Amino acid sequence: MKILFTGSNGLLGQKIAVATEKYPQHTFLATSRGENRTKAMGSAAYASMDITNAADVSSVVGAFVPDVIIHGAAMTHVDECELHPKKATLMNVEGTRNIAHAANEVGAHVVHISTDFIFDGKDGPYKEDALAQPLSHYGWTKLEAEEIIQELPSWSILRTVLVIGMAEDLSRSNIVLWAKGALEKGQAINVVDDQYRTPTLAEDLAQGALLAADQCAQGVFNISGPDFMSIYDLVGQVAEHFGLSMASVTRTDSTTLNQPAKRPPRTGFDISKARKELGYRPHSFKEALEIIANQAGL
């Protein structure tokens, strides 16, 4: 098969690029806006593609004619989406619409990456058939994108949670790298104990995306880590793993943070469907920390 993936300069995209070597039977095209910033490209070639430009998407997809498109490119900073709703809608909704239209033109299956933030967090961990009720503009844009994808004849939606990992030249950090950096400096940080997640190693999300692409799996799948924990517990495990003190950490709750976007309190996923139907095998959180530490040369 020919597989095109979007957002290749991001954390997930870089991990998909590396993992392409596990699928020598397929031909891959990595795409992102502007120049390629990914050093480890695996077996993938690269083409610049701006998902918000319909003509650009149609041109690149039309030239490559993929059998599958893995659509991971998105505006994912929750507060930035709340503060800049038009930009978020352009990226997450219209960008997805452009991908869906181009996929329809060439008859491609789409593997779309979505989020736990489509839920209100009242009764997580969630199964795939749970009722969506976003609390933020980001969540609403991702839910609208899901609805666009579901109108296609052939699609997979992979919902994920709090993606963590180490990669080159990232435009933004993630919670493990942030926590480790702050703890190393003894920086005073407030960490919430009333938000619960199943953090996901980026390599595991890439694994899920490629499994769904390889199988042209139809339907919604939860792709996350197996371990359910509070954000405070997560930071505590980071401290323990790297031998760092929690003395600079103040335990708090979400009401004290004054963040522009509201966060769902309890999300996380039941991943039994992905394990059974896709053959998905995620790492434990402790294993994920070990992988990140090795990649960081620690």
Account of the 3D structure:
By secondary structure, the protein is an alpha/beta fold. The protein has a domain at 2-166 and 200-225 and 270-282: NAD(P)-binding Rossmann-like Domain (Rossmann fold, 3-Layer(aba) Sandwich). 39% of the residues lie in helices and 17% in strands. It has 10 helices and 13 strands. It has helices at 11-19, 54-64, 78-83, 85-106, 137-149, 175-185, 202-215, 231-242, 272-278, 285-295; strands at residues 2-5, 27-32, 45-48, 68-71, 109-115, 155-160, 163-164, 189-192, 196-197, 200-201, 219-222, 229-230, 249-252. The chain has a 7-stranded parallel beta sheet with strand order 3-2-1-4-5-6-11, with helices on both faces. It has a two-stranded parallel ribbon with strand order 7-10. Helix 1 packs across helix 7 (202-215), helix 4 packs parallel to helix 5 and helix 8 (231-242) crosses helix 10 (285-295). The longest helix is centred in the N-terminal third of the chain and has 22 residues, at 85-106. It is globular and about 55 Å long.
Quick gist of this model?
By secondary structure, the chain is of the alpha/beta class. The protein contains ten helices and 13 strands.
Helicity range of the residues? 25-40%
Gross CATH architecture of the domain at 2-166 and 200-225 and 270-282: 3-Layer(aba) Sandwich
**Which fold name is given in CATH as the topology of the domain at 2-166 and 200-225 and 270-282?**
Rossmann fold
CATH class value of the domain at 2-166 and 200-225 and 270-282: Alpha Beta
Mean pLDDT: 96
Summary keywords:
alpha/beta; two-stranded parallel ribbon; 7-stranded parallel β-sheet; Rossmann fold; 298 residues
